[in-house]
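Re: the multi-chain job from yesterday

Posting the exact lines I submitted so nobody has to dig through the queue logs.
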Amino acid sequence: MSTSEYGVKRVAILGGTGFTGAEIYRLLSKHPLFKVEFVSSESKAGSPVDKHFMAARHGKKSNALKFSKIADLNSNYDIIFSCLPTGVLPQFINQLSLHADYIFNVSGDYRVTDLDLLQKHYPETLKHEFVGSSYYYIPEFSEIDHQVKVVNLPGCMAVATIYTIYPLLAHDLIENRIVSDAKTGSSGGGKTTTEHHAERTNNFRAHKVHGHRHKPEIEFAFKTYFQKEIDLQFSTYSLDLPRGIMVTSYSVLKEGVSEIDVKKAFYRTYSSTPFIHYFNSNTGHNSNPMIKTVAGTNYGEVGVYIDGKNCVSIASIDNLIKGAGGQAIQAANLYMGFPEETGLQSELEGAWP
Amino acid sequence: MSTSEYGVKRVAILGGTGFTGAEIYRLLSKHPLFKVEFVSSESKAGSPVDKHFMAARHGKKSNALKFSKIADLNSNYDIIFSCLPTGVLPQFINQLSLHADYIFNVSGDYRVTDLDLLQKHYPETLKHEFVGSSYYYIPEFSEIDHQVKVVNLPGCMAVATIYTIYPLLAHDLIENRIVSDAKTGSSGGGKTTTEHHAERTNNFRAHKVHGHRHKPEIEFAFKTYFQKEIDLQFSTYSLDLPRGIMVTSYSVLKEGVSEIDVKKAFYRTYSSTPFIHYFNSNTGHNSNPMIKTVAGTNYGEVGVYIDGKNCVSIASIDNLIKGAGGQAIQAANLYMGFPEETGLQSELEGAWP
Amino acid sequence: MSTSEYGVKRVAILGGTGFTGAEIYRLLSKHPLFKVEFVSSESKAGSPVDKHFMAARHGKKSNALKFSKIADLNSNYDIIFSCLPTGVLPQFINQLSLHADYIFNVSGDYRVTDLDLLQKHYPETLKHEFVGSSYYYIPEFSEIDHQVKVVNLPGCMAVATIYTIYPLLAHDLIENRIVSDAKTGSSGGGKTTTEHHAERTNNFRAHKVHGHRHKPEIEFAFKTYFQKEIDLQFSTYSLDLPRGIMVTSYSVLKEGVSEIDVKKAFYRTYSSTPFIHYFNSNTGHNSNPMIKTVAGTNYGEVGVYIDGKNCVSIASIDNLIKGAGGQAIQAANLYMGFPEETGLQSELEGAWP
Amino acid sequence: MSTSEYGVKRVAILGGTGFTGAEIYRLLSKHPLFKVEFVSSESKAGSPVDKHFMAARHGKKSNALKFSKIADLNSNYDIIFSCLPTGVLPQFINQLSLHADYIFNVSGDYRVTDLDLLQKHYPETLKHEFVGSSYYYIPEFSEIDHQVKVVNLPGCMAVATIYTIYPLLAHDLIENRIVSDAKTGSSGGGKTTTEHHAERTNNFRAHKVHGHRHKPEIEFAFKTYFQKEIDLQFSTYSLDLPRGIMVTSYSVLKEGVSEIDVKKAFYRTYSSTPFIHYFNSNTGHNSNPMIKTVAGTNYGEVGVYIDGKNCVSIASIDNLIKGAGGQAIQAANLYMGFPEETGLQSELEGAWP
Amino acid sequence: MSSLSCLVCKSDFSVEEDATTGEIVECSSCGQEHEVHAVHNLITIALAPEIEETWGE
Amino acid sequence: MSSLSCLVCKSDFSVEEDATTGEIVECSSCGQEHEVHAVHNLITIALAPEIEETWGE
Ligand SMILES: NC(=O)c1ccc[n+]([C@@H]2O[C@H](COP(=O)([O-])OP(=O)(O)OC[C@H]3O[C@@H](n4cnc5c(N)ncnc54)[C@H](OP(=O)(O)O)[C@@H]3O)[C@@H](O)[C@H]2O)c1
Ligand SMILES: NC(=O)c1ccc[n+]([C@@H]2O[C@H](COP(=O)([O-])OP(=O)(O)OC[C@H]3O[C@@H](n4cnc5c(N)ncnc54)[C@H](OP(=O)(O)O)[C@@H]3O)[C@@H](O)[C@H]2O)c1
Ligand SMILES: NC(=O)c1ccc[n+]([C@@H]2O[C@H](COP(=O)([O-])OP(=O)(O)OC[C@H]3O[C@@H](n4cnc5c(N)ncnc54)[C@H](OP(=O)(O)O)[C@@H]3O)[C@@H](O)[C@H]2O)c1
Ligand SMILES: NC(=O)c1ccc[n+]([C@@H]2O[C@H](COP(=O)([O-])OP(=O)(O)OC[C@H]3O[C@@H](n4cnc5c(N)ncnc54)[C@H](OP(=O)(O)O)[C@@H]3O)[C@@H](O)[C@H]2O)c1
Ligand SMILES: [Zn+2]
Ligand SMILES: [Zn+2]
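And the result, structure tokens for all chains:
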């Protein structure tokens, strides 16, 4: 791909020592059109960025770029990628807005806008008023709105769930009762998770049976952006894996809907999405979505399986890439008018086993 | 426990080199009232049994007991434990019936008795007529019937599912639509599974989305033995674990049913089952069912979580023990009139992490 | 085993919320002759002990025993098991000595007594003078000395290494140059380890190539207690396992020493040790020491393999049990004159796979 | 990199359904200068190649290229990559030699040329006379010899070991006694390994303590190609990982050799090798070689750690890539005069954790 | 462009004239894979063989 | 090109004139990392800070 026709953009990353911030830094180090010029960390401010990253292990390192505190961001950037824990961005948002055209935000802060939901699930967010405009953006389904300042990417388990049910809802194929069973790897909780390796390993357990924040997010997304009210049961589980999410959604086909209607809906939805791949043949378990083949990539795998009225749809993604950092870069590519796949294709993708 | 009041029973194991047969052999080596005198293997006939078992690694070994072919079983035993692949026991059943009071069978052959289901799911079983009587037996829920010859233990994922929904159905608390999402470790497929370690490890994937044989078994169990017709969606998934099953069942409470009704039903059902433990407090994820704390034991963990009308019930067991070998011994204890826990308690149970 | 002839001993555990303290508490809950009456925790003082333990998951719980601060230990106990981080016991040792006949200590504080080594490796220990007597005790090799107050158990990797080379040194079979390569699971670092699950999992890496504290301990043990000067290279590695240690020691046979001399030495050393099993047949990789078959038990596996002058000896143990808590109980059994295996045998030991 | 100046080469792969063959096929699908036109499989002959590969999961598939039997190879190719089990290539070698300029061979068949060693370790190879010329080639250390027909790549554990000791031997820094402790993931045995996932997982065990074929290979390599006689103890261990090898070599510095001499030797050896990276700072365990950061790449990590006379050198590689398929492509790049890194750089390399 | 009818969902879809034998073409409506059989420049299709995608097994 | 002396092995090695402050330069003999301190166009070096490379911790 010739990228010479595009201008290079100046980028800042907030929360660069975190799991998702590190992924964005790593991915952008190979991106021809985004140049990282600021990386925040409160705990490592002053220390060279490259020393911190495993990603720089087999590449050239420089001491030139050092971590800075967020409060010291005072140049202007085309884009800020914000990878802060939920509740932190609101403390800085009004000031940061002055220094960037767009803020691509992977935290939960502005995903829902309903006051009741915010009060219940994001009380920290509400503590700081944000005077700008904000927007929930899924690269595969949302329109670009160049007027907004903050582009919020979806939650990792939320978006995997949305990939399983969007085609069904968009084509009005299912009853509104949906059960989603979501399993996630351990990086999903960020670098400060306290669960000991010895406890997590060789185990599988329920994480949040009820009350996960991604449930209202999914409901809100379908209601606000796609005008669908759903009746969702959403439960989460912990896998002994470093990365990866798999969500299965169970639903019931509406009277008269056939298997071929469902397959058509999925095929149409995902036939031209470069990163979400719908597997329409079902010949052996290796043709079903799995985690191993998406881990480390920006790809998602989607499958749907019909047995009579029973509809089971499955999606798998890497939580740190397609569920966070890669998703944000994909969104930024689209906002900047760059080819969607820029910097996100993997030459060595697909190692097996 | 004083066991001197009971007489020791003579036992044969069929399929002693398999995963479940080995577990029964290992467990019975410490059981004070069952004495193993015959162990079958076609492939290792003539070779000393103790040489084969990792379980004998830290114990005393003897060369006295050698593997025999099934066709060479011609003494009489109080009990035969049959751990053969589905389709094999029927070839020998009429002959074996003459040599044992009871056959405790962990394979799928006689679990369903409906001819259509047999034809569809167990065609191998139908090839051989069995003239004796057979019975589906779950230690926690079934009555003992001393008249039968073959006592069939439930399938491992089937019984874990049954533990999640039995209290709900027995107390008529839920609508009949149930979604069960079952995850299993790799020993579930027996020792001849061809999936390579390098492929299974570091992965999570769908196994059978539709069409697993435990679905008709569960439906049949509830219909025949508990007179309940259910509308079940049952899907299975593969974990990167050696052992263990977790099943989550999603259902909807009937109008007027409260959380406390549900908790009462679970509490009553499991208050006196020595091996199935209902966890009724939900304080942190460690109080939920998990696989790590049941692996290697005959215990099962059950939890139920209500959010409005949404009912989520979870069970975990070790597939090879509570899902097969331990279950069979527990059943045999009950049939022989022994204390239910004989030989199944673990002094070192509960290692963490 | 009839235990009625022995009197029950009163026990206190220090560091009861830690990994090794929890193992001792769990194991003693089934021990017929030790009764735990005090369990320390600074962070959970006042909270019921049983609430904290996964081990109590399938057993009867009581609220009677609550965690206490160490400073509040003022009754007298027959035995104190001390499971505190290195450097903590010395702060309390003189006071605690007044309240117990023996302190069985799994921390590193008093293992070496050479002042230079203490200064270099245990500066915290030196900060507090201890006026009593202390002793390094390996159940398999050391004599009981009833005069000492503090019985120090060996370090987990140190003792595994000692198991590999003791028979060789005791029988003077090898040159004094020894290379020991030690691999350990993640519980070895205790509950406060900061390495994230996502980083540890699916990895194998060097931990301490040089400078691990167990090196001077091993050298000191052989010098002081067995009068052997060794030239040891000792390096440690991190496994993606919750528990277990395997150490391989590489040495060179002295001129004239044969394979059979070596096998005799190992056989004699371990023929009557109830917990350390020497595997003298080498028929397939399952007859070699491994971690899976010792994890969760107080057993150790030892093998030795000769090729010409090359001697390779291997040992595996569970770091939390045979490397810490189980070892301490085994030592206490011996000190109290109880049968060595009391409370340490596992009825369900040996589950495979 | 502009590749337009080079001509595209026609390639055949033998053993394309195997683990290493699949990696070569996958890597070459992105290689601009090698075009795969023939892929052998006896078991899947006639079936479309792309259906078989997980690597094609997120790419475009074609049915055009079908697997063929080796005996049906009768066009001419610039290069054959041979990924057959040891003993198979010799059956076809004389015929194949007529159809290719070079055969890059990852199997063990022609690595040693000493007749005694062949007789002992490669009896199958000796059964068929090969009339052409053959050569042992390590991209980092060997000269290109355009006269040979068969270019043999080193064994995976052999080459990792060689990376640890080559700088030491080339600069004459160590005594000739070397202990190498090699740990490997499960794909090392190829797709037909019979060890069950449930047995391999959650374990660490000795594989071959003595007698591994890579020991004579290493000795032979140093003797023949580098004129160094070494006294090597080489033992192998099995990790619960899908891929990756780590080898630690323990040696003793010659009198007068300093740490800085050693560091200089490693630095010089690896300062311009594009795929082997020497880590000369040792600040925390993340700066040591590990498996996680090389798995899925053609990179190797090397470290060396001195304590007095004790020299410990460590290397890690991916067995299927740098230990086999990637190595062969790297060699072919060099033989063809292509830039060494062509097709082997990873844009998404370095994902963490 | 050849216009063909999907063997599963019956929708029409088109295939490039230069499609080669063995090529996989997807129905543009339901995604069903078909294998191209080209006979004397006339393209016909069959359902892509539902052989299990073994992918490295 | 500035010629500098390695702070560990004492070997001479050279650094590009346009090396920027903060840049890491390796001794060409032993590989030791140094950090460039440029003062008034005069390049000086210090050992690269031996801070632990935390890499994602
Ligand atoms: N992990 C996932 O899979 C995932 C997926 C989708 C979305 N997300 C969202 O992405 C965000 C980041 O997640 P993560 O997993 O990358 O978290 P993380 O690993 O915990 O990293 C958090 C980052 O934020 C910085 N930070 C923390 N507290 C701060 C404060 N009070 N002020 C300024 N900086 C602060 C940290 O910097 P220092 O510690 O260096 O100071 C660190 O760089 C979260 O909102 C999360 O919900 C995560
Ligand atoms: N694995 C589980 O978690 C689980 C749970 C519940 C129920 N089950 C059921 O338990 C049964 C055994 O399962 P498994 O996992 O233990 O299987 P397995 O590991 O494959 O063992 C099968 C045993 O049966 C013997 N066998 C195989 N084919 C035979 C034949 N044609 N004639 C005579 N003996 C034959 C084998 O003996 P040789 O190879 O030595 O000749 C071996 O001892 C199955 O019916 C399974 O459905 C398994
Ligand atoms: N882990 C192993 O494999 C292993 C093997 C052999 C020997 N050891 C040794 O055993 C000892 C304990 O190891 P571990 O792995 O069990 O450690 P751990 O999991 O970190 O537990 C430490 C325990 O000590 C308590 N504690 C910590 N700091 C304290 C302080 N300043 N004052 C009073 N109590 C304090 C903690 O109580 P609260 O946090 O509840 O207050 C906790 O109960 C260490 O000396 C270790 O070297 C460990
Ligand atoms: N695995 C590693 O890490 C590694 C590393 C370095 C070197 N190597 C070497 O690379 C070679 C291949 O290893 P691998 O792990 O890829 O093995 P593998 O997974 O077992 O694959 C072997 C391949 O060879 C084919 N094959 C087997 N027997 C054959 C026969 N008799 N005639 C013709 N084709 C036959 C198989 O084809 P079908 O079954 O489809 O007919 C398959 O494609 C071996 O020599 C190995 O020592 C392997
Ligand atoms: Zn169609
Ligand atoms: Zn230098």
